[in-house]
Design a protein that fits this description.
heterodimer; A: 77 residues; alpha+beta; Translation Initiation Factor IF3; four-stranded mixed β-sheet; 2 helices; B: alpha/beta; Rossmann fold; 2 domains; six-stranded antiparallel β-sheet; 35% helix; elongated
């Protein structure tokens, strides 16, 4: 299991979700992906994307204007 | 036990595609959703930019629909490939710069590629004959099926009974008798079906979910192409068309004026790509200058900037100008009066 980072700052939704989706597709179950965003929509959209696609959101932190979402890749079907 | 057939549904986030996918689930089809991001999607962007909109509950409707249906959703970035659809639509535009028929052909074509790559059997859309004047007509349905390459793998559950049987119907993967014959612009049958499925909260976008159907947005895009002397755009161009006041005082440059803090903050991200201006003696907007500007032009831009600052009624306002290639300068200017900005400067 490994941790990966994704810089999605200045991208507007749904681009942070798309970048997250594309990054997750290259990871293995159990890996974590830390996504740094500035669009507040990502707070809702990344968790929604994770729910429908079987991944877990481990945390959502806000630091000044940045939103940091940590996703754990779920088991592939 | 018969094999479970798999369909991918084009999910826009609206009611029709939600119902189309739901109808397939009722027939035991495994459905996954696909949603295309063109760059012109209304979803999200402007809400994220304007500060006053940040407090609003916000959701991505396509993801919300997927949650309601309990299906996976694949969001595909088609920004680059989509440019050719917008710039050279074979079937032309609708009322504005909306290439709706070419758009649908393109999206179904991408869905066809997707089902081939992912081992799915057919494609589902929420199209209804007569629902949209440009793309959803009796005569456009076969055009979309043929030009996309999907042919009879394209099933429209909401109006299938008004169309020839598709492969999934002929093969018995779905029961044609349990499909629908919706037609026309009325939304009543869809709303009745939604009630039948227990769906009460769904998006009802007026005029679609694409900025290209918006007259003001299309006017700004047409202006951009005219000013550049060619029909092309980058993703930043189309994002910026959604933000701020766009004012073109001269054919060779325009100004993008932030209207409030959220927009100013968004525009700050473009300071390294554009000559930009802001007032220093009074609170005011961040202004990007798109194009070429000489000395007189910079002064005029400074006066426009001052006009939209809190010093609009002052005798003199200081405006800092940051040219893209040059030294930072301060102009002390009299703000332009409201009557000095002709209506046709506003895009």
């Amino acid at each position: 299991m490994s941790e990966h980072r994704l810089d999605a700052r200045r991208l507007l939704c749904p681009l942070p979700v798309i970048r997250c989706q594309d990054a997750v597709a290259k990871l293995r179950p159990g890996d974590t992906l830390v996504i740094v965003c500035t669009d507040p929509g990502a707070k809702h959209d990344i968790p929604a994307w994770c729910r429908v696609n079987g991944h877990d959101v481990l945390s959502i932190e806000e630091q000044q204007d940045e939103i940091i979402v940590t996703v754990q890749v779920g088991d592939a079907d | 036990m018969s094999e479970v057939r798999k369909a991918v549904a084009l999910i826009s986030g609206g009611l029709d595609s939600l119902l189309a996918a739901r109808v397939m689930q009722e027939q035991g089809i495994h459905v996954e959703g696909i949603n295309f991001f063109t760059g012109f999607c209304v979803e999200g962007h402007t809400h994220a930019i304007r500060k006053k909109d940040r407090a609003r509950p916000k959701r991505n409707n396509a993801l919300w629909v997927a949650e309601q249906l309990g299906i996976k959703l694949h969001i595909i970035d088609i920004i680059e490939e989509y440019k050719d659809v917008v710039i050279n639509p074979k079937h032309g535009y609708g009322a504005n710069l909306n290439p709706c028929l070419d758009c649908k052909v393109f999206m179904v074509h991408k869905a066809k590629e997707w089902i081939e790559a992912n081992g799915f059997d057919f494609i589902v859309t929420g199209e209804v004959i007569g629902q949209r004047p440009k793309s959803q007509r009796k005569d456009t349905m076969p055009i979309i099926a043929a030009e996309s390459g999907a042919e009879d793998l394209l099933l429209r559950p909401l109006c299938a009974k008004n169309l020839p049987p598709t492969l999934p119907e002929r093969e018995g993967w779905v029961d044609r008798e349990k499909l629908y014959d919706f037609e026309g612009r009325t939304r009543k049958p869809q709303m009745a079906l939604a009630r039948q499925f227990g769906l009460e909260d769904y998006a009802q976008p007026a005029g679609g979910c694409c900025f290209l159907t918006d007259a003001n947005y299309s006017k700004k895009l047409a202006d951009l192409w005219q000013a550049r002397g060619e029909r092309r755009y980058e993703i930043d161009d189309i994002m910026l068309l959604k933000v701020g006041r766009h004012i073109r005082p001269r054919p060779h440059f325009k100004l993008i004026v932030g209207r409030e803090d959220g927009e100013n903050k968004f525009l700050e991200g473009y300071r390294k790509q554009f000559t930009h201006l802001f007032t220093t003696s009074h609170n005011g907007p961040l202004v990007l200058l798109d194009g070429e500007a000489g000395e007189d032009d910079l002064e005029l831009a400074a006066r426009v900037t001052a006009r939209y600052s809190q010093g609009r009624n002052a005798e003199q306002v200081d405006v800092e100008v940051h040219p893209l290639d040059g030294e930072v300068r301060t102009f002390s200017v009299r703000p332009l009066g409201g009557s000095e900005i002709p209506a046709d400067w506003h895009l």
